[in-house]
From TrEMBL:
Gene Ontology terms, MF aspect: helicase activity
Protein name per its UniProtKB record: Helicase C-terminal domain-containing protein
Annotated WYL domain residues: 783-845
Organism from which the protein derives: Streptomyces phaeochromogenes
A Pfam family reported for this protein in Swiss-Prot or TrEMBL: Helicase_C_3
Highest classification ranks of the organism: Bacteria, Bacillati, Actinomycetota, Actinomycetes, Kitasatosporales
Length: 853
């Protein structure tokens, strides 16, 4: 290739983007979706947007540690830097082979995200990134390096610089610029620097060793000690302010053997297995916990069936109500908060919107109950995996120091779905049946998002990772800390072989919904995770449900009745049996088997619900594997015989009974005084209490009254299921703009290319538009019409200025097809489609210049 054919180095990021193909632009927009919202008009605007502070910070936050270290090294390298210089800053004098292997892909990742541009011999970091990463007194660099010799001596007198040259054994120069260059050359020459430091006093070398890895600044007195004076005289320490000195960058790099970082981390830390179990044990343990999670949600919403706790004025559940719920579920408060939040995230729980607003189950809960057990579990698991509400922050404080309440505002953490999926993906990369050490998972996440991960283990991503491990175990996605088979299916990794832990890049490439890909290079950096479509989520959930279903226990159709008025359910019960038994008996204990106890109150509850004694006997005989004990038969008959013997209606309230001796007993009982009863007739007592109070009062005295209607019929009381109006599940809060799909990317790139063509294509100067200079072309109406008509005949492409109905001006490149009726129909290269424009809105027109050879 001749020199004329060689590609000219780009002079700006816009020119570098202009040289990229469509595939590279698509990769940039996919990695940084904020650049496409809204779609830039041309590549210059895209480059400007890519250099804004907010966008650059967001891009830096998504870099892994080594790629970020590469950017930090480029920020302290001379600008522009060549590839070899940058690699030397990372690999050091020993040329670390791991760094050498990882470097090409780290640099490629920075290029792909438009953080670095230029050819290999003129690499440049975008200006905003350099400002963020370069060392300064106000913002120290993670490298711990200080300013260069040229920067540190910028305010120094020329005479003082010459004195430093003399003390360092260098010849003096005629100006300060050449003196600084001579001193810089000395500090960057390894051999001469070694000779200079060999003559240094040991105490002076000790001073340098304390500053070499940063911070590079130190304090000195007005009369420095001899060890400091020796360094100051030779420029190995340079003054920056009265009483402050700094170690020049070139000196520090020599002492560091060329490394910009104390610990360069080209490879991610391995996720360490904590224990290994048989996969079958993991799957059955996870399945058991999955079934427990369904029972917990059902018990929670059954407890709130007639209307749950009230909604706080600021939204959410009060601390008292959360404690009461935790006691009812026999769980700790944080765990109870997790289940409450999960039911809300799945759309099974919401506020009813009434004047006295309360929480209650939604109509979707009734639909959920009709699903098979595996289907109910996948509904919960997918809601947890994709939701942004984070139960772990409940009890903490928001930015205004207000306590964060369960079901309240402020619980969304947009990073939660990504962290959850990533933690499960790391577990999927381990051998089957292996659990992971939480600390190693946190360390891995810190490496993958170095700028987001703080040095302490208390940052949000670390807490999210630890919560994920705990919540996944509670939900039955993992068993004994290891990912189950249905858990692998849920994240789309069920058919993947475990990846080696050192093979970081491709493993990171698996975003939510991506199967673990084949690893082509062990150092390939991770692109941002791609969200799964609803169809992909549904498909993964269906596969997980199919794997889980055979592991779940089959509901039983029987119980074991015992002589002590208890019934033992040795496993989960079929829903009709469980519902009836919940009315007929009280739950005494839970666990692998549930123990129910029959009491007079529970039997009366069943009779109140419309069951007769014969119905109850038949029900128990049908569903008991053991003979019905005689004490239970007696209990039912005794309660049924007395049930309804007393009748209560509304006068204010009255008691009616054919047995006047029984009414005499009631009036004589001191406990009835609060009811203020009086006899109206031998078989009727009147009360000033309301019927419900009277009913409850007589029951507390040991009687079994029944309520009756105005017609004298016994009122049957059934449990009233309070439901909210239809509610949708809370929408997750996205972590930035969504990643564009292929169709949007293609359309956006065509629009950007066309807009760039309109803004950069040269045109022929006219008297009315001598040059573009960033302004719209201006021609008269007659000139515009004539030029348009001529272009229709010749097929030429024109550059026009156009003002739309809203008054927004733009420039376009069009190929006119026909001109008639005050309109021009043309193929618009900017929009990549045929459009019709009113001629009166065209500000001017110019012919495009001929292509240059």
């Amino acid at each position: 290739m001749s020199s004329d054919e060689k590609q000219v180095a780009p002079r700006s990021l816009a020119e570098a983007l202009r040289a990229k193909d469509d595939g590279s632009l698509a990769a940039l927009l996919r990695a940084r979706p904020d650049l496409i919202t809204p779609v830039p008009t041309d590549l210059t605007q895209l480059a400007t947007r890519a250099g804004t502070r907010a966008s650059v910070i967001r891009a830096l936050e998504r870099l892994d540690r080594f790629t970020l270290q590469t950017a930090e090294a480029l920020a302290v390298a001379p600008e522009p830097a060549d590839r070899e210089t940058l690699l030397a800053l990372l690999a050091g004098d020993e040329n670390d082979p791991a760094v050498v292997g990882a470097f090409p892909h780290a640099l490629a990742a920075l290029r792909e995200q438009a953080l670095v541009w230029g050819p290999d011999d003129r690499l440049r970091l975008v200006r905003t990134a350099r400002e963020l990463l370069a060392p300064s007194p106000q913002h120290p660099s993670p490298t711990g390096l200080g300013p260069t010799v040229a920067e540190a001596t910028a305010g120094m007198s020329p005479g003082r610089i010459q004195e430093i040259l003399t003390a360092a054994g260098l010849p003096t120069t005629h100006d300060a610029v050449s003196a600084v260059a001579s001193l810089t050359a000395l500090f960057t020459d390894r051999a001469r620097m070694a000779d200079l430091l060999a003559a240094a006093p040991p105490d002076s070398l000790d001073v340098l060793s304390r500053l070499v890895w940063g911070p590079p600044y130190g304090q000195v007195t007005a009369e420095p000690a001899a060890r400091l004076r020796w360094l100051l005289d030779r420029g190995l320490l340079l003054p920056t302010a009265p009483g402050t000195v700094v170690l020049p960058r070139e000196v520090a790099l020599h002492l560091r053997a060329g490394r910009a970082h104390r610990n360069t981390e080209p490879l991610p830390p391995a996720v360490e297995p904590a224990a290994t179990h048989r996969p079958q044990v993991v799957d059955t343990t996870a399945a058991g916990q999955a079934y427990t999670s369904l029972a917990t949600i059902e018990e929670l919403l059954k407890d709130w069936d007639e209307g749950g706790p009230t909604v706080l004025r600021a939204g959410g559940l009060s601390v008292r109500d959360l404690k009461r719920t935790a006691v009812a579920l026999d769980l700790s408060e944080p765990v109870a908060a997790f289940w409450v939040e999960l039911a809300y995230a799945a759309g099974l729980l919401a506020s009813d919107g009434e004047a006295d607003e309360r929480y209650a189950a939604t109509p979707a809960y009734d639909e959920w109950l009709e699903l098979p057990a595996a289907g109910r579990w996948t509904r919960l698991a997918t809601a947890w995996l994709s939701g942004t509400r984070t139960a772990g922050v409940i009890g903490g404080r928001d930015t205004k120091e207000r306590t964060l309440a369960a079901l309240g505002p402020g619980l969304d953490r947009s990073a939660a779905p990504e962290v959850r999926h990533r933690v499960l993906t790391l577990l999927a990369a381990l051998p089957e049946g292996a659990s992971a050490s939480p600390d190693s998972v946190v360390a891995r996440l810190h490496w993958e998002r170095a700028l987001r991960g703080a040095a302490s283990s208390d940052d949000l991503r670390a807490r999210l990772a630890r919560w994920t491990l705990s919540e996944a175990e509670s939900l039955g996605i993992t068993g004994r800390g290891a990912l189950s088979a249905h858990g692998r299916a849920l994240i789309g990794a069920e058919s993947s072989a475990p990846a080696p832990e050192t093979d970081s890049g491709a493993e990171q490439a698996s975003g939510p919904g991506d199967k673990l890909p084949v690893h082509h290079h062990r150092h390939h950096p991770a692109p941002p995770p791609q969200p799964r479509s609803p169809a992909e989520l549904a498909s993964a959930a269906a596969r997980a449900g199919k794997l889980l279903a055979p592991l779940l226990p089959e509901p039983l159709d029987h119980v074991l009745l015992q002589a002590d008025l208890t019934a033992v359910a040795p496993g989960p019960l079929q829903r009709p049996l469980a519902d009836t038994l919940d009315v007929l008996a009280d739950v005494e204990s839970k666990g692998g088997a549930t123990v129910y106890r029959f009491t007079p109150g529970s039997v009366r509850r069943a009779l109140d619900a419309g069951r007769s004694a014969s119905d109850l006997h038949a029900f128990l005989s049908e569903h008991s594997r053991t003979p019905v004990p005689q004490p239970l038969t007696y209990l039912i008959d005794d309660v049924a015989r007395r049930h309804g013997h007393l009748r209560i209606g509304s006068a204010s309230a009255y008691v009616r009974c054919d047995d006047d001796a029984l009414l005499n007993e009631i009036i004589a009982d001191k406990r009835s005084q609060g009811l203020r009863l009086r006899r109206l007739a031998p078989t009727v007592l009147a009360a000033q209490a309301d019927p419900a109070t009277l009913l409850e009062g007589l029951r507390s005295m040991g009687f079994a009254p029944a309520a009756e209607s105005a017609e004298g019929d016994v009122l049957i009381t059934r449990a009233h299921a309070h439901r909210t109006p239809p509610r949708t599940a809370p929408e997750p809060v996205p972590d930035g703009p969504p990643s564009p799909d292929t169709t949007l990317l293609g359309a956006a790139i065509r629009a950007i290319r066309a807009g760039d063509l309109a803004s950069t294509t040269p045109h022929k100067p006219t008297a009315a538009a001598p040059g573009r200079n960033g302004t719209l072309p201006r021609t008269t109406s007659a000139e515009t019409l004539a030029t348009m008509q001529a272009a229709v005949l010749t097929g030429d492409t024109l550059w026009i200025g156009y003002v739309n109905a809203e008054g927004s001006a733009s420039q376009r490149v069009i190929a006119p097809i026909k001109v008639e009726g005050g309109f021009v129909t043309a193929y618009d290269h900017t929009a990549d489609e045929v459009r019709t424009y009113p001629l009166h809105r065209v500000t001017g027109v110019a012919e495009l210049a001929d292509e240059q050879a």
